[in-house]
Amino acid sequence: MSLPNKDEVRGKFRKAKGNIKEKVGRAANDPELIRESQNDKSAGRGQETFGKARRKVGDAIKDVGDAIRK
After folding, report:
1. Where does 1-70 have alpha helices with state H?
2. CA 15 – CA 12 distance, rounded (Å)
3. Are 11 and 46 a contacting pair, CB within 8 Å?
4. What SS3 class is residue 30?
5. Do residues 14 and 55 lie in contact, with contact meaning Cβ atoms separated by under 8 Å?
6. pLDDT of residue 1
7. Geometric angle at alpha carbon 51, from 49 and 55, rounded to 5°
8. Packing angle between helix 31-69 and helix 6-28, nearest 10 degrees?
9. Is the pTM of this model over 0.90?
């Protein structure tokens, strides 16, 4: 398995940022911050999923290239 790419890492960071915003929003009773947190978490999940798919395609291409060289 290859290392995570930048989209996966950024997605994980954005999800973590959303979790922090949600906790702060709930502690401060700030509905706007809670909505922002949901947006951040959703966007982070999407970006992370895109990064995983991109990595899997890259791995498959590498495997095909390796098979051709043999």
Report:
1. 6-28, 31-69
2. 5
3. yes
4. coil
5. no
6. 63
7. 120
8. 160
9. no
